[in-house]
Amino acid sequence: MSEEVKLIVDGKRRDGRALDELRPLKIEAGVLHEADGSALVHWGGNKVIAGVFGPRECLPKHEANPYKALVKCRYTMSPFASKEEHSRSGPNRRSIEISKVIRQVFESLVVSELYPMTQIDIYVDVLQAEGGTRASAITAAAVALADAGIPMKDMACGLAVGKAEDQIILDLGKEEDNSGQSDVPIAISHRDKKFLLLQMDGLLSRDELEQALDMGIVASDKIHELQVDAITRRYSNLESDGVEL
Amino acid sequence: MAETAHDIIMHDVKRSVVLELLRRGKRMDERALDEYRPISVQRDVIDTAEGSALAKIGTTQILIGVKIDLATPYGDRPEEGIFSTNCELLPLANPSFEAGPPREGSIELARVVDRGIRSAEVDVDDGFTKGFFLEEGKVLALYLDIYVLDHGGNMTDAASLAAMAALSSTKIPKYEDGKLIRNETASMLDIKRFPLATSLAKIEEFLLADPTMEEKVACDANITISTTKDGNVAAMQKGKGEFTKQDVLDAVDVAFKKGDELRKYIL
Amino acid sequence: MKKIVVPGEQLYNKPVRNESMYVEDNNTYAAVIGFMDEENRFVPTKSAYRPKPGDAVVGVVVYIRSNGYKVDLNLPFEGFLSGKDTRVPFSMGEIMFAKVRDVDEVGNVDLTDARKLGPGKIVNFPSAKVPRLIGKRNSMLQTIRDGTGTEIFIGNNGYIWLAGGNIPLALKAINIVNKKSHTSGLTQQIADFLAANKD
Question: What is the pLDDT of residues A26-44, one digit of tens each?
Answer without folding.
Answer: 999 999 999 999 999 999 9
